[in-house]
Each structure stands twice: as C-alpha cells, then as structure tokens.
Amino acid sequence: MIARKFNWCIYINTVLLIVLSIYFFFYPAITILHEMQDPGLKAGNVPHFTFGWHRSLSRDYAVWAQERVASGEAAGLNINNISGTEWPVFGTVFYLSSTESLQQAWEKDPTLYPVAPAEYALDAIEASAALVADPGHAGWVRQHWGDDYLSRENLFYRMLLISGLTSYQKLTGNDQYEDLLREQVESLSKELDESAYGLLDDYPGQCYPVDILPAIAAIQRADKVLGTDHSQFVQRALRGFQGGVLDEETGLPAYIADSRTGVGYGPARGAGISFMLIGAPELWPVTSQEWYANYENYFWKQTWATAGFREFSRDLSYGSWAGDVDSGPILAGYGTAASAFGIGAARAFGRYDHSYPLSVEALSASWPLPDGTRLGPRMLSNLSDAPYIGEVSLLFALTRLQITEGRVPTNGFVPASAYFGISFYLIMGIAFSRRALRSLDDWKKNMTMPIPNPKLQFTLWCIFSLIGLVSFFLFDRVIGLFCLLLAQTFPSGNRIGSWLIDYDFLKTA
Predict the structure, then answer these.
(1) Could you identify which of 90, 116, 287, 298 might form a hypothetical disulfide with 313, taking C-beta atoms 3.0 to 4.6 angstroms apart as the criterion?
(2) Digit-coded pLDDT (tens) for 174-187
C-alpha cells in the first residue's frame, strides 16, 4: 500500500529531474553550439542571436529600472559600496548602447528580427533613461563632490550621463533630456579643454585616463544628436594621452594618473585599456591602431586551451590570480573584464581573430537558460543593486560594430576551454538524468523497503513540490529550484529516516 502510494511521487520526481537537466544543462550546451556558428561573430555584423537575448533581457530590465528609481534606495548607499553605486548606472548605459547598436543594425536590415528593438524595448529604454537621469542615482557622486557635482570634474558620472542620454535620444527622438545633455556636453568639454593636461578626476584625487577617452567619445557622439561640433576639442584632447601619462613599459595610458601634474603612476591595466579602446578608433584612428598593437604585444595571450587579454602586462610578475571590483576575477593572468570588454575592442578594430575566440569562450561560460537568463554573468553581478550588469556588459561587447578600415578575419579558432564549458553542461545533464532513472529503477527493485513516517514524508513532498513549481515559474527561481531539489529526497528510507524517527520519538517523549 505504502509503495503504491509513493509510485506517482517517484515518477514525478524522475520527470522533474530530467526536465531540470534539460533546462539547466542540455539546453545551454545546444544553444552555445548554435551561437558559436553565428556569422556575426566572425565578421562586422551584429550577431543574430543577440536580438532574442536583448528582447528577453528588456522585459526584466524595464521592471527592475522602474522599481529601483521608485524605491529611492540608491540615494542612501554608502560611497564605499562601489558595485552598488556605480554599476546600476554603468550597466544601464551599456543596455542603452546595446539597444542603439541593435536598432542601427535592424534599420539597415529589417529582416534580422520581426520587430525593431526601439519598439519592443520602449518601456526598458524609457525606464533606463529615467534611471540614468535620476538625481537619486547620483547620490554617491554628490557625497564626493557636493551639490555642484554636475559642474566640476566628476568625469566618470558625467560621461555616463552623456552616453546614456545620447543613446536615449537617438532611439526615441524624444528631447525631454536634451537640456541636461547639452549642458553636460558643453560644460565637460570646456572643462577638459581648459584643464592643464587634458585630465579630470573621477573622484577627488582619483583620475583614470581610461575613463577620459570614453568621455571624449561620448561628447563626439552627442554632436550628432545636438547638432554641435566639438571636432577641434577632440583633436586637442589627444594631449591627455601623451607624455608622462603613458606607462613607459607598454606605451599605453596608465590606469591611474595625477590630473594636476599629468603624470601616470602604476601600470596599464587590461580592464581599463579594453574599455578605452572600444571608442578610441572613432577619435584618433592612427594613434589608436598603435595602442591596439601595443595591447596585443603586451597583454594578448593565446594557447590551445585559452585565449584572452591579461589584466597586467605579461612582463609583470604579479597579478596572476585574485582580482578586484574593476578587473573581476583574474585567472592565471587573464582578466575577466579585460577579456569581456576585449571582445568589443577587438570588434571595433576589426580584429576578429581576437574577438571570435573571446566570444566563444564568453558564450560557453554564459550558461544560457530557456527564459533568456545568462546565468554565468548573472552570478558575477551585484544581485541586490545591479543584477543585470554582467549580462548587459557582455551584450554591449558583442554588439560593438567595426570602426576601423580593414579587418583581420578569424580562422575559426575555438579554445579548448570553450569545449570544456560545453562538456560540463553535457556531463552534468547526463549525470542528473542518470541519477533520476537510477532512482526510479532502485525504487522498483525495493518497493517493499520501510519508509519512516510515510504520511509526513508524503506531506513534505507535496509542500516542497508545490512551492518549488510555483516559485520557479512565478517568483524566485533560486527558491523554486531549492524546493524542487528538496522534494527529490522523498520518499526516503535512509537519508532522512533517522531524523524522522527522532521526530516521532520527541513527539511521544
């Protein structure tokens, strides 16, 4: 009687575990193998799969951005919480820029996707612009600079403001933020132009040249929206990346500098150089080509198993492991951020021999799920304040368009690490599926085994299964998955039998 009572529980458990294996392991492996063949990864086009990914992400991003602005939580964050303060705005600018690239590609070829990105993502675009312009999300820079944070230095935040609002106006044609955009373009370009060395601080006493170049590029892109012309400023701004600010060893801008003396200190770092190079060729084509050549010479590393940009020059003896909030994890010298943004830099320079292996490695680690989530970069994000920054950063890199003339084609080299990632999904999927089938087979062979407290076990199985299914599909997938896995432990004659017996003993004591 008891065995028959649990028969259908066992069959449901078996089906659920196989479905979860497909959802979390087999689907990602098949998806990655398909995406690796996308011609957009090997040439100057936007990869076709990024449209579906972006549409799925847009639904969640609209809700998150609206709720975050409405909550007002950003205004109260501590300035030492770097990921909580910087990343929400930084990631939102990446989202808007990615949308702009996809819309540009769609306008050239509407057959790429049934609906224009600017149309299906309109709610997310509006919510993103509201977040970027939200004074509450400037709380951390107001603490650094005071109430005049929009009129002196504060370069990083003002760069994000210009970039995000430019993308918004290009996508929507709506000029509701134009006065703010124009004011920032004019004031920041004037302040940079009048500075002694073409350098400004992000935060008091903290000047990062790798942020200054994207700011100059943002001003130039804003010209197309505002009808202004800062070309003379752009040409003069090259002075900020010459002389003492350069790392003597690599000839690349130092990661940090003293804006009052124009001298860089510390080495060039991959996370900053990769990010900086994405916009460099549209400003100074000749100089940027020299920079990329130096970057390749000192930072690019490729073996049969791996390919990527190092966080520190190969000539330095430190920085092979660990990492920080800017670099992300550093693994055997490879920088996570350096290699992720390196995809965008390589694409901007037409270096598909670099961008393709980097892209397939990133895709193999992205862990795509059927609901559109990229679990890999999601886990590297700030789940409380910037849960999507990992995904939008990768999407941003993959949607960069070539700026330079000419290209270096890829030979289709796929590092073994990408295949290792795919093998992981397949092995785990097979292991979980076999486990499900083996449990079913064991049950059939041992249907007469004693089951302590069958009513309690059956009740717990029903509770965990119901909560798991409802949570997984409607509320929180992590809680849902946890409950579904707990349901897999029932019925049990050994694993939980002891505490169930103890429970009975305590109840009768």
Answers:
(1) 298
(2) 999 999 999 999 99
